[in-house]
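Try this one yourself first.
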């Protein structure tokens, strides 16, 4: 247990940040699952429209530092690669 005032404050801050980061990571997983579901259904049009919002949310999460920005870039790249492959086979 923390004894000093600064250590107690750090515990409070860490608790708030943990909740905030957990919420952001949950949002990230949900967004990726939505796009993946659309890609699995071979719905290129739906996936393309949903991708714009998802990319924006992923960028915001990466900018906050909750998840490393290279991990965000990797997720976006993989999703876009699947979307582009789906578009090219559908065309």
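Now uncover the answer:
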């Amino acid at each position: 247990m923390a004894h000093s005032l600064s250590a107690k404050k750090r515990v409070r801050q860490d608790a708030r940040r943990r909740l905030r980061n957990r919420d952001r990571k949950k949002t990230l997983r949900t967004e990726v699952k939505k796009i993946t579901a659309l890609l699995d259904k071979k719905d290129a049009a739906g996936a393309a429209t949903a991708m714009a919002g998802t990319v924006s949310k992923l960028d915001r999460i990466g900018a906050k530092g909750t998840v490393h920005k290279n991990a965000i870039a990797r997720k976006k790249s993989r999703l876009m690669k699947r979307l582009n492959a789906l578009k090219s086979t559908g065309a």
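Discussion: The mean pLDDT is 94. Residues 5-40 form the longest helix (36 residues).
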